[in-house]
Amino acid sequence: MENTKCECGHSNPVGTTLCEYCGKPLEEESASGQPLEMRYDGKARRSQTKNATWVDHVWNFFSSVKVAIWLILITLIISALGTIFPQERVIPSGNPDVYYKQKYGTLGDLYYNLGLSDVFNSPVFMILLGMIGISLVVCSLDRVIPLYKALNNQKIEKNPAFLTRQRVSRTESVSEADRGEVLKALSQALQKKRYHVRTEGESLLAEKGRISRWGPYINHIGLIIFLGGILLRILVPGWYLDESVFVREGETKKLPEVNYYLKNEKATMELYDQTDSREQASKGQPLVKKYETKAIVYQKDPNTGKLKEVKRGPIVVNHPLKVGDILLYQADFEANQTQAIQLQLTDKKTKEDLGKFRINLYDPAKEYALDKGIKVRILNYFPDFVMEGNRPTTKSENPNRPAFVFEVMGPKLKKSEKSWMIAGTNLDDISKSNRYAIDLSRLETVNTSGLMVRIDKSLPIIFTGLGIFMVGLSMGFFWYHRRVWIRIQDGTLYVGAHTNKNWFGLRRELEQATQAAGLPLSFSPEQRREE
Amino acid sequence: MEKAMEYALFAAFFFYLFSTIAYVVAVTGKASRVGKEVHIKRWGKRGLILAMIGGALHILFTVIRIGISGHFPTSNMFEFTAFLCLSIVIAFIIIYFIYRITVLGAFVMPLAVIMLAYAAVFPTEVKPLIPALQSYWLGVHVTTVAIGEGALAVGFVAGLIYLLCWVGQGNRAHTRTASLLEGVLAILLMLVGFVLLSASFGGLGYQASFQHTVDGKPVVEDYSMPPVVSPINSKVVAMDSFPGLDKALFEAPSWLKGEKAASKLNTVIWSVVSGLLLYGLLRLILRRRLHVWLYPLVKNLDLEMVDEVSYRAIAIGYPIFTLGGLVFAMIWAHEAWGRFWGWDPKETWALITWLFYSVYLHLRLSRGWHGLQSSWMAVGGFVVIMLNLIAVNLVLAGLHSYA
């Protein structure tokens, strides 16, 4: 490999901008009078030195911050587009292909067809996140290694050109006699400012806050762990579950996908004081104070098949119930759902009351025996009645609009009677010729809780990643890496200083330090321009 | 107690206003008798003290409100925007003590005034919390977000000052930067216009309402500003008179659907028009472009210094915003909604804000985007924050639409 030799005799790898040994600017860097580019202390990165195999090409592509920025920008734009209309998972319809067109017109249709309606689950978005992950790894490695090497092997004595071309720098003539004193005084003053000072001959290197330099790499590690956690929960079976279940009061139901059963002992909704206008959402609109489900969780004994209580407790919004890895959340509440109806049978001729019978709408019995040998049988039951063309049918299993076809049999009837009953509909005309009338006498209602059943085993990884990310951010932003090089050569005092941020603070600190050392110097940008 | 709370905020508002005036006097005053240096120092100090008193009153307001409601006042648009205003003031005071740039106050404090006035446009009553908000995370998550955004807002103001300086110092009044800068100032005036109009129509008690159908159901849509645009296929239910406007001038376009879409569009139209009118009026009075008029305020600043202030404010705001807007947000979302991330519009826009500032930092640290480019990014970042505050809450529906 071709090397670049500095005049101090050190051979630098290609791509080095500042001599690794003495800091003298190499090649084109030496031409201009601008402050030096101090990134990674001018050290060459892998991506600048290797470009032969396909691995190198891939590495070089992902090591580019420019590429990383484009990836972030594309993610940003796609995310913004994804918020124009609601995403598919939150729309109140199971047919997105129709929904978007109907609700938002042509634009909505376009939105759906471009895949924007479910963009955050699209392969494109996953690939983007994957590429960002790779970019994070490669960019970090490509930079942290040369930076670590450079900072670990710093030479104290630097070329004067390196010092004078720092963004903060100053030259001042000193007399031969003062030389030793000046350096010593400056060294002490800088140590007072908590600098770690090393000297070599008539040179000095003061440094503090190097920890700040590792901040970006540590926060990138945090992000990599975060993305890794997300990847794991997609890939590892059983790590992630997102289901929901509706359980009526009094009902015991198996939880989806997991081997637990849940009984809803009581579901309540509490409202704020309805008489106080300040406690209402808007005029006359009550505001919900609390949703709560008193739940018992069971597990089935594999031998006896009996349910064994595992846990019992309230499920409240913001306070999920934890059972092993499973978290149960209060997500939905349906008040006063009809669970059963009580019907009344009357003899239309004699006006005689022939008794009442109760039908469980979720699990109706086939036949009901009433007074005087009369029997009512359910011929057909439509829990969620709807007419499809001329045929009655049911939309769902939920008794939202129950409809029945009854058959009434009794000793006074030659032939059994058929009678229709549809919730919310008056059917007196159809059954005019019937002897017996069936009427609704009472509704039995219960509350229903909508619960979310969640497992997310990647959470510890995800939150650890975020924690590390925050540590890295704090290190990077709340600490500053400051270095001051001082060298006396041929009756001239050279001071050069560099920081990764907060130049104002560095300048002020240097002015205070030189003042304390009895050699007040100004480090203002104007001063530098004059020099 | 309620009255004390109202007075505290009212007083805070006026102290912010007085602080603005003191800062403007500091940087514009002739100061023939005492000399420029002394004058700036004296009035700058007054501005700072006024701002601090305002901030203290604002904190008092917050404390009383916690006492009354039992929860941290960050649960609706009024409370959040007011707290954001307080955060901006606090962030400014901190940055001021680091850099001691008086001019910054002359730009940040008016922003605080506008913010608080904007907050007051929304219903200010204390309301009890819905179940999803009943958590200590309400205080932790939302305040951290607001404090982070406060610092980022100071970064934006410094960026704006940089642009004014850059255009003025280099006599670049005819560059694209100058025109864009003028555009940004005009947009800020639209916000001012919106606040002024809301306050005046609110004060007059203006009301109009229309009936139309949304998703097959009849809906009555209330307007708080005279209707320039009415909902599509709608009937007037009631309409207060407004000179020159006895019916809506036109109907909302058909693709604009959803609840209250038309009245929001109506508000936007009023804001844009009033902002442009204000702008035109200012141009007529001042007889020069706004950035030229503002330039004398900033002419003595060092560009490199302003650039650093902007970056520093963002470097402080970014980690805090990340902590509040993403990390705390995810923890709370996990507790309340059973998932730490759900692509709710507000969440997504917090992510977009974060991505935007990430781009800012990478461009600055790795690609050498300093000064001009960096300042534009700082301005852009604030635009994203404002979009998230205003547009996402009011236009896009989602779990966070609390106002």
From TrEMBL, chain A:
The chain crosses the membrane at residues 67-85, 124-145, 217-240, 459-480. It comes from the Bacteria. Keywords: Cytochrome c-type biogenesis, Membrane, Transmembrane, Transmembrane helix. One of its GO terms (biological process) is cytochrome complex assembly. Residues 65-511 form the ResB-like domain. GO terms for cellular component: membrane. Its main location: membrane. It is found in: Membrane. It holds the Pfam family ResB. It is a multi-pass membrane protein. InterPro entries: Cyt_c_bgen_Ccs1/CcsB/ResB, ResB-like_domain. This is Cytochrome c biogenesis protein. It comes from Marininema halotolerans.
UniProtKB/TrEMBL annotation, chain B:
Keywords: Cytochrome c-type biogenesis, Membrane, Transmembrane, Transmembrane helix. Residues 75-199, 275-400 form the Cytochrome c assembly protein domain. It is a multi-pass membrane protein. Pfam families: Cytochrom_C_asm. One of its GO terms (cellular component) is plasma membrane. One of its GO terms (biological process) is cytochrome complex assembly. It comes from the Bacteria. The chain crosses the membrane at residues 6-26, 47-68, 80-99, 106-124, 136-167, 179-201, 268-286, 309-333, 348-365, 377-399. GO terms for molecular function: heme binding. InterPro entries: Cyt_c_assembly, Cyt_c_biogenesis_CcsA/CcmC. It is found in: Membrane. This is Cytochrome c-type biogenesis protein CcsB. It comes from Marininema halotolerans. The lineage of its organism: Bacteria, Bacillati, Bacillota, Bacilli, Bacillales.
